[in-house]
Specification:
The chain is of the alpha+beta class. It has helices at 7-17, 31-41, 58-64, 69-77, 103-110, 116-124, 126-139, 161-171, 190-193, 196-199, 206-221, 226-232, 237-249, 293-300, 358-375, 390-397; strands at 2-5, 44-45, 83-88, 90-95, 175-181, 184-189, 223-224, 254-258, 265-267, 280-282, 321-326, 329-339, 344-352, 380-382, 401-402. Helix 7 (126-139) crosses helix 8 (161-171), helix 11 crosses helix 13 (237-249) and helix 15 crosses helix 16.
């Protein structure tokens, strides 16, 4: 079945698929709601930057409202987790039932086909890697620091041999993340972390796993190109092309065209959009809706960049910038920082998107900033010194106003 959609129809389907078309629930978010959301999204990206709050906490806030962050931690690293850490879309929290669908990636890592530098290390230092695995079996949960040699060097990629061994073992599925201390992974043998019932499930073929992951991606994206679907779980190029043909022939995906899109579109059967999207949500820079920048530009007609790694003098909107989704449009972008010591949410810049009206955007954005501050247990919102919305937010918050529930 082939469909032809306007850009607006595709955008509304995408928002509905992501759980961002309706206003958030009025009551407190429950454990069940969080689990359903994780299942709907399929993956929640993890990132180390903590200038506001770590990225994996934000998608649920954007969709469910002020849920207890401890609830997500329990689901990911508690005694009976429903999520596990692995490479999904980058480092991710994934529903634990997806583990069999990612064993193909673990097997490729064991064959040396993933992350060539790490694979070469594992091949050349095989005896050492096996020693590390045996030590984990003997000692129990460990961190990279437990295998550090000499003085630890600063820097994200300044890994010791022990850390390299742990990361390869993690890629290959021999070990899993039991918990985190601060933001450092604590590893243990996979059979001591994941439920025996999950590990006992049959391992699907690569082709079956790829088809299942592409269907999950299609359900989470709503309307997508082949590149969008492949990117969601970072699947191989040639295999993605072949599996998509099979899924369309089997009637498990629909194809069509979207106004303004150069590539054909794919849809989950029966995918539909909200008639009038009503969300008002700040989006993490790593939110599923916008993590593929070219797709975000197709959906919203605006370029979204991650400016963390851009030199300060070349940044357009700021350092840690959250787009503001209002209805079905991105209407503003705010550069945010948590001043935890002072109990303030610092709005360092607030920029209005072209075509958006300040008197429409401003009150909704102010209310959302207040909700965010309250959720983060920050007492005040400090308005921005720069940006088209600075004056309006200055009047709303003054020198700093209490957040509201």
């Amino acid at each position: 079945m082939s469909r032809t959609l306007s850009a607006r129809q595709a955008r509304r389907i995408a928002l509905a698929a992501q759980g961002l078309a309706a206003a958030r629930p009025s009551g407190p978010a429950t454990r069940l709601a969080l689990r359903k959301l994780a299942g709907r999204l399929g993956a929640i990206q993890i990132d180390s930057v903590n200038v506001l709050v770590r990225a994996h906490y934000l998608p649920a806030f954007s969709r469910l409202g002020a849920y207890p962050r401890a609830l997500l931690e329990e689901e990911a690293w508690g005694k009976r987790p429903s999520l596990f850490e692995y490479w999904g879309h980058e480092a991710s929290l994934l529903p634990i039932d997806l583990q069999p669908l990612l064993r193909w990636r673990m097997e490729r890592a064991r064959r040396g086909e993933m992350w060539t530098g790490l694979a070469r290390f594992a091949r050349e230092r095989r005896d050492y890697v096996e020693h590390v695995l045996a030590e984990i079996g003997r000692r129990g949960p460990v961190t990279g620091g437990d295998f550090a040699q000499g003085r630890r060097q600063p820097g994200w990629w300044s890994w010791t041999d022990g850390k390299r061994a742990l990361e390869w073992l993690f890629w290959a599925g021999f070990i899993a993340v039991r918990t985190r201390r601060g933001f450092e992974r604590v590893y243990d043998l996979t059979e001591r972390v994941l439920p025996a019932a999950v590990l006992a499930r049959p391992t699907p073929s690569e082709a079956d796993a790829h088809r299942a992951l592409l269907k999950l991606a299609a359900g989470a994206l709503g309307a997508a190109t082949a590149g969008d679907l492949r990117d969601y779980f970072r699947l191989p190029l040639a295999e993605t092309k072949a599996r998509l043909v099979e899924l369309v022939e089997a009637g498990e995906l629909e194809t069509g065209a979207v106004e303004g899109w150069r590539q054909p579109a794919f849809f989950a059967p029966g995918a539909a959009g909200a008639r009038r999207p009503a969300a008002a949500a700040l989006l993490s820079p790593f939110d599923n809706l916008i993590w593929r920048r070219e797709r975000a530009e197709r959906l919203f007609g605006t370029r979204i960049r991650l400016e963390i790694y851009t030199p300060a003098e070349r940044r357009e909107h700021g350092y840690y910038v959250l787009p503001f989704l209002q209805g079905e449009a991105i209407t503003a972008r705010v550069d945010l920082k948590s001043d935890r010591k002072a109990g303030r949410l610092l709005v360092r810049a607030a920029h209005l998107e072209p075509g958006a009206e300040a008197d429409v955007v401003g009150p909704a954005l102010a209310a959302e900033l207040a909700r965010l501050a309250a959720w983060l247990e920050l007492r005040e919102v400090q308005p921005p010194p720069v940006g088209a919305l600075s004056a309006l937010l200055g009047r709303e918050f003054g020198a700093g106003s209490p957040g509201v529930a």
